[in-house]
Specification:
13% strand; alpha/beta; three-stranded parallel β-sheet; two-stranded antiparallel ribbon; 7 helices; single chain; 189 residues
Length: 189
């Protein structure tokens, strides 16, 4: 039988405290329950882990060999949980980023660079697409996120990252060249 993580925690606590009483107090469980779990662990492993006497609990030779292994298993379990947390937060794994060509030159390089610096365990793949391909790909799950321009689509969550001014450039002799603002231009059209 493979020991449960809880039993390994109990074993390490008794080994650290050299006392079932102090270990039980630190674990916030009854001493009798702790003693029973250690006995179950010893039976499952087929080895006595502690010598018990009135002064406390001392590791046997087998227990001394088992202690670093138990610590390693517990540390690895904690690492696995931490890795899962990072994955849930989107810090590791992969992200598929799609973009419009008009956003690529100035927006894409600094964003990808910042993501790679902050989240080195996150693989970023990029693809260029038309607005229709971009929207369909997000809806179908082929892409995780996109850089696009308005108009925004109601069934997709969007955040404005930046705004930019747009200007019209006309020859000086063009009839609209004398207008002062875009509103003048739209009213003239």
């Amino acid at each position: 039988m493979t020991p449960e993580l809880r039993q390994l925690r109990y074993f390490v606590a008794v080994a650290d405290e050299t006392s079932f009483t102090r270990a039980a107090a630190g674990l916030h469980i009854a001493q009798q329950s702790l003693s029973q779990q250690i006995t179950v662990l010893e039976r499952a492993l087929g080895a006595r882990l502690f010598d018990r006497d009135a002064r406390g609990a001392r590791l046997t030779a087998v227990g001394q060999l088992f202690l670093p292994e138990a610590r390693a298993v517990l540390a690895r379990a904690e690492e696995a949980v931490a890795t899962l947390g990072r994955a849930v937060r989107g810090e590791i794994g992969s992200v598929r980023l799609v973009f419009l060509a008009t956003t690529a030159n100035y927006l894409l390089p600094p964003v990808v660079r910042a993501v790679r610096e902050r989240f080195p365990d996150l693989a970023v793949t990029t693809a260029e697409a038309s607005i229709a391909e971009l929207v369909d790909g997000l809806r179908e799950g082929r892409f995780d996120l996109a850089f696009t321009r308005p108009p925004l689509v109601e069934d997709l969550v969007s955040r404005t990252l930046l705004t930019e001014e747009v200007c019209a450039v006309l020859p000086a002799e063009h009839p609209l060249a004398g207008l002062a603002a875009a509103t003048d231009l739209t009213e003239a059209g």
